[in-house]
C-alpha cells in the first residue's frame, strides 16, 4: 500500500509509535519481534502518525493495535478486512494496516480475506502464521500440518492445511510476500515493500508460538540450519540457497521444481531466475514446501492493478456535478411529480 | 390528438363517478403484471388520486408458466379521499390465465368486475391451474361481472405487420390490459407512452409495438360493446404540495441521502443482496453524484463490517438487509454498541424463520431487534409505518445515531418496502440539519469521556493530529477507554450504555392518538399495520365507538408518555404480523393486559379483520360491565 506522503512537522521516531499500554504477549513470543520491526519502519515512511490506522480481528496477533500509538481498532474475529474496506474506501488518504493471524485470516475470516485481495483494496495485511491457535490455548489451525496433535485433535488432525501464499495468489492478490519474525532486516524490508505497493499487500510472517507450537519454524531460524532451509527470493536473481550458496532450483520434469547442486557443469544460468511480476512463477514457488524444498521467503509477486478504493472514488468524482454541489431538491423531485393545490 | 382526447371526442358511453376503486392485475410471473401495475399507479398518481399499492409476487423468478406457484399480482387502491391501505377486497380483477384467476378470485367482491384473457383458458392451462372444468363455462363465476376478452388475439392483431415474432408480440399483452383498464377508469396513458419511449428507446420496434398495444387496449374499451360505462375517480383532497409516488425502499434510500446531505458527510452503504431489501442498494448506487458510496459486500457480515469501518472514518454509514442477514450482523452490532459508533441497520422484514417467505411480509423481527445480541446490548429501534414514512424514519434514524453515537435499527417490511403511495416532497431546506462534530481538540481528550446530556462519546476520526487512540470490542474502562476487566467497571459501563439508550426517549414527541383520545379501546400498532389500523379506527369511530389509535415509530426506547396513553383506555389491542411481540414488551413494561391480534400469512391485515376483532373486544367488555 502506498499513501501520498505529507511533510511531517518533526521527524518521527520509533518511540512515537509505542503506546502507553503494557505489551501482554507471552514472554518469548514472536509477536514482540514483529511489533519492534513495524515500529522501526513506520517513522521512515513519511506519513504523519495520525494517518496510520491499525485494524485487527481476534487472536494473539490482533492485540497488536493496542501497542502502536496510532489510530487503532480491535474488531471482531476474522472481520478486520471488511472493516478496513469501509474505512479505506471512504478515507483513501489514510494508511490502513490489518494485523491478523492464521486462524483469524484463514479460518473464520477466510471469506473476507479472499475478497479484500481480489478487490485489491489498498491496505497492508500482516498475517502472523504460527500454525496454531494461541489465544484459545492450543487447538490446531488451518495451517497446522496433517496429524497435528493438539487439545482438540488428540489423535492428530486429519484435515489438510492451507498454504497461505498459494491461497493469496489464488485470490488474485497483487502483492504476496513471506518473511520471518526473527529475520529483522528481511522483515523490515518486506514491510517497506508492502507499504510501497499500491493495492492489497499480503505478508505472511512465520511466527513462533513458544507456548503451544514452539520450534515450528526452527530449521528456518536457527543459525546453523537456516541457510539450507531458506530460499531468499530476489527479483532478477537466480534461485540460489545453501550455506555455501551451492544449491539452486531449476525446472525439472514437467513444471516441477528440482533442487540441484551447482558445479559439475551446472551453473547459475541453469537456474530459475526470480521475477516478482510473474504470477505463474509465484504460484510455482508457493508450492515448494519443506522437507523436499527450502522455504522461499521474500516477495513472490508484486504487480499493479487498479485498487478498489481508487476505482470507487474515480466513479464518484466522475459523477459529481460540475458545480461541485449535488442538488438535493432536484433528487427529491425526480421522476413524475404533481401538485395538489 | 392523444387517445384520451380522441375517445372523449367520440365517446357516447356513460361515465359514472366512483369514490374509491381497488384493482388487481394478476398473471404469470413472466406476464409483466408488476409493470402493468406500476404504470397504472403512475397514471393514477398523476390523475390526483390518493393511492396505496400491494405488489405480490412469488420468490421464484420464473416458476413454470401457467402454474399456481407462478402467479404474480399487483393490487392498487385509489380514491378521491384519503386512504391508508391497498384495500381488503377487489372491485376489479384482471386475470391473464386460469391460475391467476384461481389464486385471486376469492378476493374479488360479489358483483365485482372480472376481466379475463379468454384464450388463456385452454385445456393445458386449466390443467396446470388444477381446474377440473372451465370456470368460464361452469357457472362458478356467476356472482361476478365477467368480461371475456381475447387479449392474446387482440394483441397479436394490433401487431400485424410489425415484424415482431409471435412470442415477442405476446409479451405485449400486459400493455393491452393496461390500456383497457386505463380507459375504464379514465386514466391518462400519456405518462405510460412516455415511459415506453424512454424504456425501449434503443429498440424502436419494441417501443412502437408496446405503444400500439397500449393504444389498442385503450381504444378497445371505447369501441367494444362489452363495456357500457367508464368510471371516473375524481382527484383526492389531500394536503397541498408537490407529490411523487414512492415505494418504501425508494423513500428510505432518499431519506438516507437527505440525512447525509444535511449532515454534510458522505453516505456509505454496505449491503449484500437480499429480498426485499436490495432495491435500496440498487437505488443508492445511482446517487454517486451525491458522494454516495455503495459497497456490495461478499456477505452480510462484511456489509455491516464495512459500514462500521466507514463510521470509524466519519461517514454516515448504513447497512440494509432482511431477517436472515440480521442474524449474521448481530455480532457487529454488538461491536458497534461497544465502540459507540453510529451506524443504521435497516431490516426489511420478511416471513421467517430461515429462508421462510422471502417475498412476503411479516413483523416477526421486533424481539430480535430488541434482544437478539449477546450481552446487555441495547440500541434504539425505529419502525416505518407507510411507504412514504420510510423517508422520515430513515432520516430520523441517522439523526439519532449521530447524536447519541450509537447503532440504530430501522425496521421496515416487505409490504411497505414494495408498496407505494404518494409522498409530499419536502424542500431540502425544510429538513433539519444534522450536526456532526468531530472532536479535534487534544486538550484533556479521552476516548470515552461523555457528553453530560446525551452520554455520547466524542467522534474522533483517524487523521486528526494528537488524538490517536485505540478502540475495540473488549470492555473499556470508563473515560480512558483502556481495556478493563474490572468487575465494578463492567457493571458501570453496562449501566451507562443502557442509560444512554434510555435517554433517547427525550427525542420522542408526545404520542398522537387519533380517533377517541380516551375511552373503551386503544388499538396500538407499530410498523406497516398503520394503514389497516387507521382505516379500521375511522370505521369504528364513525359508528360511534370510543376507539383510539396510537402508532409507535420509536420501539426502543418507548415513548415516555405511552403508559399514560394506555391507561386512558379500558382495553388495549395490538395487531401484529407475528405471534405477539410488541404485546410482550407492553405487558412487561406497563403491566397492561393488552390483547393481541396476530396474523402470520405473509400478507397485511385486512381492515375488516381489525374491525371485527375490535368489535368482539368491545362487545365482550360491554358484556362484562353490564
What's a quick, concise take on this entry?
The complex is a heterodimer of chains A (341) and B (626). Chain A has an 8-stranded mixed sheet, sandwiched between helices. Chain A has a 3-stranded antiparallel sheet with strand order 10-11-12. In chain A, strands 5-6 form a two-stranded antiparallel sheet. Chain A has 11 helices and 14 strands.
Describe this structure in words.
The complex is a heterodimer of chains A (341) and B (626). Chain A is 28% helix and 19% strand. With 341 residues, chain A is an alpha/beta fold. Chain A has a domain of 211 residues: Rossmann fold, CATH 3.40.50. In chain A, the strands form three sheets. Chain A has an eight-stranded mixed sheet, sandwiched between helices. In chain A, strand 10 and strand 11 form a beta hairpin. In chain A, helix 5 packs antiparallel against helix 9. Chain B has three domains: 230 residues, Pyruvate-ferredoxin Oxidoreductase, domain 3; 187 residues, Rossmann fold (3-Layer(aba) Sandwich); 113 residues, Rossmann fold, CATH 3.40.50.920. Helices cover 37% and strands 21% of the residues of chain B. Chain B is built from 21 helices and 23 strands. In chain B, the strands form five sheets. In chain B, strands 11-10-12-13-15-14-21 form a seven-stranded mixed sheet, with helices on both faces. In chain B, strands 3-4-2-5-6-7 form a six-stranded mixed sheet, sandwiched between helices. The chains are: A alpha/beta (341), B alpha/beta (626). Chains A and B meet through strand 2, helix 2, helix 4, helix 10 and helix 11 of A and helix 2, strand 9, helix 10, strand 11 and helix 12 of B.
Amino acid at each position: 500500500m502506498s499513501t501520498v506522503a505529507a511533510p511531517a512537522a518533526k521527524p518521527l521516531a520509533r518511540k512515537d509509535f509505542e503506546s502507553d499500554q503494557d505489551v501482554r504477549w507471552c514472554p518469548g513470543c514472536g509477536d514482540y519481534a514483529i511489533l519492534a520491526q513495524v515500529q522501526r519502519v513506520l517513522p521512515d515512511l513519511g506519513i504523519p502518525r495520525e494517518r496510520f490506522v491499525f485494524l485487527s480481528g481476534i487472536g494473539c496477533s490482533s492485540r497488536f493495535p493496542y501497542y502502536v500509538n496510532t489510530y487503532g481498532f480491535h474488531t471482531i474475529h476474522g472481520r478486520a478486512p471488511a472493516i478496513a474496506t469501509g474505512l479505506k474506501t471512504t478515507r483513501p488518504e489514510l494508511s490502513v494496516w490489518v494485523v491478523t493471524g492464521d486462524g483469524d485470516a484463514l479460518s473464520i475470516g477466510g471469506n473476507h480475506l479472499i475478497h479484500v485481495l481480489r478487490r485489491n483494496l489498498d491496505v497492508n495485511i500482516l498475517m502472523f502464521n504460527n500454525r496454531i491457535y494461541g489465544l484459545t490455548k492450543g487447538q490446531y489451525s488451518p495451517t497446522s500440518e496433517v496429524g497435528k496433535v493438539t487439545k482438540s485433535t488428540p489423535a492428530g488432525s486429519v484435515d489438510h492445511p492451507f498454504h497461505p501464499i498459494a491461497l493469496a495468489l489464488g485470490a488474485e492478490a497483487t502483492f504476496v510476500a513471506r518473511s520471518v519474525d526473527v529475520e529483522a532486516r528481511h522483515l523490515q524490508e518486506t514491510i517497506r515493500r508492502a507499504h510501497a505497493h499500491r493495492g492489497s499487500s499480503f505478508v505472511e510472517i512465520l511466527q513462533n508460538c513458544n507456548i503451544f507450537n514452539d520450534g515450528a519454524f526452527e530449521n528456518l531460524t536457527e543459525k546453523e540450519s537456516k541457510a539450507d532451509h531458506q530460499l531468499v527470493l530476489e527479483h532478477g536473481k537466480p534461485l540460489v540457497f545453501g550455506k555455501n550458496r551451492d544449491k539452486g532450483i531449476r525446472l525439472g520434469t514437467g513444471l516441477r521444481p528440482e533442487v540441484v547442486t551447482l558445479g559439475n557443469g551446472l551453473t547459475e544460468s541453469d537456474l530459475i531466475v526470480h521475477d516478482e511480476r510473474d504470477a505463474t512463477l509465484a504460484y510455482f514457488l508457493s508450492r515448494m514446501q519443506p522437507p523436499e524444498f527450502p522455504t522461499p521467503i521474500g516477495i513472490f509477486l508484486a504487480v499493479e492493478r487498479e485498487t478498489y478504493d481508487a476505482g470507487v472514488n474515480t466513479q464518484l468524482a466522475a459523477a459529481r456535478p460540475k458545480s461541485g454541489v449535488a442538488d438535493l431538491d432536484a433528487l427529491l423531485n425526480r421522476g413524475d411529480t404533481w401538485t395538489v393545490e | 390528438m392523444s387517445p384520451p382526447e380522441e375517445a372523449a371526442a367520440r365517446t357516447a358511453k356513460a361515465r359514472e363517478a366512483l369514490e374509491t376503486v381497488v384493482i388487481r392485475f394478476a398473471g404469470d410471473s413472466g406476464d409483466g403484471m408488476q409493470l402493468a401495475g406500476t404504470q397504472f399507479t403512475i397514471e393514477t398518481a398523476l390523475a390526483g388520486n390518493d393511492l396505496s399499492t400491494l405488489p405480490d409476487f412469488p420468490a421464484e423468478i420464473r416458476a413454470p408458466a401457467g402454474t399456481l406457484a407462478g402467479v404474480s399480482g399487483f393490487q392498487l387502491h385509489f380514491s378521491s379521499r384519503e386512504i391508508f391501505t391497498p384495500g381488503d377486497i377487489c372491485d376489479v380483477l384482471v386475470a391473464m390465465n386460469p391460475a391467476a384467476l384461481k389464486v385471486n378470485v376469492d378476493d374479488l367482491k360479489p358483483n365485482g368486475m372480472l376481466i379475463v384473457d379468454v384464450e388463456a383458458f385452454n385445456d393445458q392451462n386449466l390443467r396446470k391451474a388444477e381446474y377440473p372444468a372451465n370456470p368460464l363455462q361452469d357457472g362458478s363465476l356467476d356472482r361476478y361481472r365477467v368480461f371475456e376478452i381475447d387479449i392474446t388475439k387482440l394483441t397479436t392483431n394490433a401487431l400485424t405487420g410489425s415484424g415482431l415474432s409471435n412470442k415477442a408480440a405476446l409479451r405485449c399483452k400486459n400493455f393491452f390490459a393496461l390500456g383497457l383498464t386505463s380507459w375504464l377508469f379514465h386514466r391518462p396513458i400519456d405518462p405510460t407512452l412516455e415511459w415506453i419511449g424512454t424504456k425501449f428507446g434503443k429498440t424502436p420496434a419494441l417501443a412502437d409495438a408496446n405503444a400500439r398495444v397500449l393504444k389498442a387496449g385503450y381504444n378497445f374499451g371505447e369501441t367494444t360493446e362489452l363495456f357500457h360505462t367508464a368510471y371516473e375517480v375524481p382527484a383526492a383532497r389531500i394536503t397541498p404540495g408537490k407529490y411523487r409516488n414512492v415505494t418504501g425502499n425508494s423513500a428510505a434510500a432518499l431519506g438516507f441521502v437527505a440525512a447525509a446531505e444535511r449532515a454534510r458527510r458522505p453516505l456509505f452503504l454496505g449491503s449484500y443482496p437480499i429480498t426485499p431489501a436490495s432495491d435500496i442498494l440498487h437505488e443508492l448506487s445511482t446517487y454517486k453524484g451525491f458522494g454516495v458510496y455503495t459497497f456490495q459486500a461478499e456477505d452480510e457480515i462484511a456489509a455491516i463490517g464495512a459500514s462500521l469501518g466507514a463510521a470509524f472514518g466519519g461517514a454516515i454509514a448504513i447497512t440494509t438487509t432482511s431477517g436472515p442477514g440480521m442474524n449474521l450482523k448481530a455480532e457487529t452490532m454488538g461491536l458497534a454498541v461497544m465502540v459507540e459508533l453510529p451506524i443504521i441497520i435497516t431490516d426489511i422484514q420478511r416471513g421467517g424463520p430461515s429462508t421462510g417467505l422471502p417475498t412476503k411480509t411479516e413483523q416477526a423481527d421486533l424481539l430480535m431487534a430488541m434482544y437478539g445480541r449477546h450481552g446487555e446490548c441495547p440500541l434504539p429501534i425505529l419502525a416505518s409505518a407507510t411507504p412514504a414514512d420510510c423517508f422520515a424514519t430513515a432520516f430520523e434514524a441517522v439523526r439519532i445515531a449521530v447524536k447519541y453515537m450509537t447503532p440504530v435499527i430501522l425496521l421496515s417490511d416487505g409490504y411497505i418496502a414494495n408498496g407505494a403511495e404518494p409522498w409530499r416532497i419536502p424542500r431540502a431546506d425544510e429538513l433539519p440539519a444534522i450536526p456532526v462534530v468531530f472532536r479535534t481538540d487534544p486538550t484533556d481528550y479521552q476516548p470515552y469521556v461523555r457528553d453530560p446530556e446525551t452520554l455520547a462519546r466524542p467522534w474522533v476520526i483517524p487523521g486528526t493530529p494528537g488524538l490517536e487512540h485505540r478502540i475495540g470490542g473488549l470492555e473499556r474502562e470508563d473515560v480512558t477507554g483502556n481495556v478493563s476487566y474490572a468487575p465494578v467497571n463492567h457493571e458501570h459501563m453496562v449501566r451507562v450504555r443502557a442509560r444512554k439508550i434510555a435517554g433517547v426517549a427525550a427525542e420522542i414527541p408526545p404520542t398522537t392518538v387519533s380517533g377517541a383520545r380516551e375511552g373503551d379501546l386503544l388499538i396500538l400498532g407499530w410498523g406497516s399495520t398503520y394503514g389497516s389500523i387507521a382505516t379500521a379506527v375511522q370505521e369504528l369511530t364513525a359508528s360511534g365507538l370510543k376507539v383510539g389509535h396510537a402508532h409507535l415509530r420509536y420501539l426502543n426506547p418507548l415513548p415516555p408518555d405511552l403508559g399514560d396513553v394506555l391507561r386512558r383506555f379500558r382495553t388495549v389491542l395490538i395487531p401484529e404480523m407475528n405471534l405477539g411481540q410488541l404485546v410482550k414488551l407492553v405487558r412487561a413494561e406497563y403491566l397492561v393486559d393488552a390483547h393481541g391480534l396476530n396474523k402470520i400469512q405473509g400478507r397485511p391485515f385486512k381492515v375488516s379483520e381489525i374491525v371485527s376483532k375490535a368489535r368482539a373486544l368491545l362487545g365482550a367488555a360491554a358484556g362484562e360491565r353490564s
